[in-house]
Amino acid sequence: MFKQPLIYTKPSNKVTLSNLYPGTLAEISRLYMLDGRTGQNFTTEDKQRIGQFLQLMNSLTFKKKLNQIPRTGYLYFVDLFQGDTKVLRITFAGDVQIDGTYYSIDSDGIYSFP
Q1: Which of 3, 46, 73, 96 is the most exposed place for a label (fewest CB within 10 A)?
Q2: pTM for the whole thing?
Q3: List of domains in the chain
Q4: Where are the beta strands (DSSP E) in the chain?
Q5: Residue 113 in contact with residue 56, Cβ under 8 Å?
């Protein structure tokens, strides 16, 4: 009698934005972005542009950093809103901070937001 082989799969500690956001990304209605170097800001309620940004962010995988000591300064931050309620902040400063937790971007490639 043959036994089934025991297959062990190491759990992944990589997550996507959809895994990190408890709500529905399709319900995001406004995006506010601030450049921490220049103070220039950008706001859009255009569903297509919001969708492009969310698609880009969801194509990345994030790995939680061991070092969760608060940092200062940032290159950019993006606030996501449902109606008038801010539901998520993503801060870019070498590491990525998503609602207070630091992650490294674990995806390969160069990304840009049109």
Answers
A1: 3
A2: 0.79
A3: 14-105 (2.60.40)
A4: 14-15, 30-35, 41-44, 62-64, 76-82, 85-93, 95-98, 101-105
A5: yes
